[in-house]
Amino acid sequence: MTAASDSAKLASSAQEAHIEVRDLTMAYGARVIQRELNFKVNRGDIFVIMGGSGCGKSTLLKHMLGLISPAQGDILYAGRSFTQADAATRDAMRQSWGVTYQSGALISSMSLGENVSLPLQLYTNYSRAEIADVVSYKLSLVGLGGYESYYPSEVSGGMLKRAALSRAIALDPEVLFFDEPSAGLDPISSRMLDELIVELKESIGSTVVMVTHELASIFDIATNSVYLDANSKTMIGYGDPKYLRDHSEQAIVRQFLTRGINATKGDSVP
Ligand SMILES: Nc1ncnc2c1ncn2[C@@H]1O[C@H](COP(=O)(O)OP(=O)(O)OP(=O)(O)O)[C@@H](O)[C@H]1O
């Protein structure tokens, strides 16, 4: 591809939704969790999936990651259906994503450096020396320069989250997915993680999709959001969370977003 066609592609992709969830119904067997979800995540968004406990936020993330197939509907990346793509195309699409789960999910028998090197070993042809360079760079981006040889059991919870983030950005992903990134962190570490997510998103140019209950994160860093309602089993809010807090026609959404800035997952939410 020439630079000109590259830039033409980039220019057109800047206009389009990076991710589109279209008429999505999610179910476990016969049990429908959410139906008729329709929303778009624009390129460069920090998009938050919100809602009360058990409404289906993690289930939606798993659908977006292709770990669960939709009961109905489709999920498109840059206009291409993930749901209908063949296995090779799905694999290629997956390689452009970075994921961090609530637990961090680092491999405990491997050092932080080895953990971060895994995707590079799997998906690139880099030499050992090149991988070592990328690993130290990615660890330094999350403030863990020099911690290559430490094991997960030897670092704090906040450092583990940052190491997991470092692994997620190893391949410069187009989309970064987070499930409760700051779960279990104190408020200061949690804010630092938020700042880091924004910095990394800007330096890598990723789109971010995250599940979070943290109002501080939602208001500080989210650019767009969707609210899933467990009772009606569909989305009842879609937009900038500050706008939804002040103007949503749905009382449940306004209540969720005005719980108090220090609310945590344990607080009662609708
Ligand atoms: N593998 C599964 N099989 C059957 N039901 C499931 C499965 N995983 C989740 N569920 C059910 O689907 C519903 C949505 O679960 P999910 O974990 O997506 O909600 P959530 O909004 O992420 O919840 P929380 O905020 O508490 O983490 C819940 O009722 C849950 O019990």
Characterize the structure shown:
The protein is globular. Strand 9 (224-229) and strand 10 form a beta hairpin. With 270 residues, the chain is α/β, with parallel strands linked by helices. The protein is built from ten helices and ten strands. The structure holds adenosine-5'-triphosphate (ATP). Residues 28, 33, 51, 53-59 line the site of adenosine-5'-triphosphate (ATP). InterPro entries: AAA+_ATPase (IPR003593), ABC_transporter-like_ATP-bd (IPR003439), ABC_transporter-like_CS (IPR017871), P-loop_NTPase (IPR027417). It holds the Pfam family ABC_tran. Keywords: ATP-binding, Nucleotide-binding, Transport. This is ATP-binding cassette domain-containing protein.
Task: Give the SSE map.
Layout: H1 3-15, E1 17-28, E2 31-42, E3 46-51, H2 57-64, E4 72-77, E5 80-81, H3 87-94, E6 97-100, H4 112-123, H5 128-141, H6 157-168, E7 175-179, H7 187-204, E8 207-211, H8 215-221, E9 224-229, E10 234-239, H9 241-247, H10 251-256
Parallel strand pairs: 3-8, 3-9, 6-7, 7-8
Antiparallel strand pairs: 1-2, 1-4, 4-5, 9-10
Helix pairs in contact: 4-5, 4-6, 5-6, 7-8
This protein binds adenosine-5'-triphosphate (ATP).
